[in-house]
Specification:
- Helix 1 crosses helix 3, helix 2 runs antiparallel to helix 3 and helix 5 packs across helix 6.
- By secondary structure, the chain is an alpha+beta fold.
- 53% of the residues lie in helices and 11% in strands.
- Strands 1-2-3-4 form a 4-stranded mixed sheet, with helices on both faces.
């Protein structure tokens, strides 16, 4: 997998904000473009390791930054936190945060000024945890890494229609599952279902605030 590191996160955020506020050449985005951004964002949510979608994500981010009719209410505190990350996926996390925020605004035009609602939807903290766990799993020799896909066991057999946030087979041949939730009770419920589907697997619920 090739991950574009791009600009430092604070610089990327500054340039995006500046591009949005200065209304550059592209002008008003079309309905087709906005629909495409939403589609690409959801693809990235489901398959963040897909290189071809990664390229689409970069293209979508550039188009969003060039469209003066899209005003993303960036959260300086979160962007500052992202800038301190030392992850391979730091740029990817920031891009997803911005694209997810854009998608929320497109799907909820009546909440363009609601920064809190935008950040809850984009859920950058979960994205950061996910990226960190993927990187660690890769470093430890994990295989068959899947994000938000139907549950399969270590043999690759589908064992449930539920979609764990992250699942992979570790170097010992054991299937590992990670669930990210803001509510510990929800995380426990998700973990219980995963264990019922695959008693041999390891399930780790994580609370993300």
């Amino acid at each position: 997998m090739t991950v574009s590191r791009g600009l430092p996160i604070f610089a990327l955020a500054f340039l995006l904000a500046a591009a949005v506020s200065k209304a550059p050449a592209q002008g008003t985005s079309t309905a087709e473009e906005r629909a495409q951004w939403v589609e690409i964002t959801h693809k990235l949510e489901n398959s963040p390791l897909d290189v071809s979608i990664d390229e689409q994500g970069e293209s979508a981010l550039k188009q969003v930054s060039d469209a003066h009719d899209i005003h993303v209410p960036l959260c300086p505190a979160m962007l500052s936190e992202f800038n301190g990350m030392k992850y391979t996926f730091a740029h990817t996390i920031t891009r997803q945060y911005m694209l997810a925020s854009t998608t929320f605004l497109i799907e909820n035009p009546d909440k363009t000024a609601d920064t809190k609602a935008v950040n809850l939807y984009a859920d950058p903290n979960q994205a950061a945890k996910l990226a960190q766990d993927i990187q660690q799993a890769q470093q430890e020799g994990a295989t068959d890494i899947r994000v938000n896909q139907e549950q399969v066991n270590a043999q690759g057999q589908r064992v449930g229609q539920n979609r764990p946030d992250l699942q992979y087979t570790d170097s010992n041949g054991v299937r590992d599952y990670i669930e990210y939730d803001q509510d510990p009770a929800s995380g426990a419920a998700h973990a219980q279902r995963i264990r019922a589907n695959d008693p041999a697997g390891i399930v780790e619920p994580k609370t993300v605030k």
